[in-house]
């Protein structure tokens, strides 16, 4: 994260930054500033300059916390192909299960894993249409809440346990990963079959929680940088 001198707008070199004393000195104008104040200034500037057509709403609450709200997206063009694939899979499996069941129920059992996958895909389609996400950052925690009809989710994460917040390349998934409900959303991503899916990720206690999976990449990058810098800023203030 770059620190900018507010007096001369020059980048302050890392060698002139002392984390332990919370001070940074500008090499050009020789002025000295608190690092936490420079970080806060940088964060405010980024919040006030969102990407074009950003859908995330940022609100500062009375208790000092920051709330980021991502509204429901409804049914959109990018969901047409996943919807067709899901409905086609259900139709094909229904016909196949009916056909083999005439030979005996033993053969129909082999279709169970595929039924699990297509049903999870259908449930995720329903969630994707109605889901909203809210991130609330306070001085002690980051709360990620996903409100949706099926399996809503809430994660309360202590800031001290957060290693980083970044856009992570998930790589190629295994067949077993397809049976995890949270991964269904990722199947519909453009580069899923190539193992190049990238999503905003909160990494803490050797765990990874994904968020804003459906947001535009520039919006994902913008909010990820803001959150990561805000967490660092709060930690820095606590260490003073």
Describe the structure in your own words.
The chain has helices spanning 35-47, 80-101, 105-109, 112-130, 184-187, 217-239; strands at 17-18, 23-25, 32-34, 57-60, 66-70, 132-137, 141-147, 153-158, 162-169, 198-204, 207-210. With 240 residues, it is of the alpha+beta class. The chain has 3 domains: 1-49, no CATH class; 54-72 and 131-239, Roll (PH-domain like); 77-128. The strands form 3 sheets. It has a 5-stranded antiparallel sheet with strand order 4-5-6-7-8, covered by helices on one side. The chain has a 3-stranded antiparallel sheet with strand order 1-2-3. Strand 6 (132-137) and strand 7 (141-147) form a beta hairpin. The model has no long low-confidence stretch (mean pLDDT 80).
The CATH topology assignment of the largest domain is: PH-domain like
CATH architecture of the largest domain: Roll
Cα end-to-end separation: 19 Å
> Major sheet: order of its strands?
4-5-6-7-8
- Contiguous runs where pLDDT drops below 50 for at least 5 residues: none
Radius of gyration: 23 Å
Q: Which structural class do the helices and strands define?
A: alpha+beta
**Mass-distribution shape:** elongated
Keywords summarizing the entry:
36% helix, 5-stranded antiparallel sheet, 240 residues, alpha+beta, 3 domains, elongated, single chain
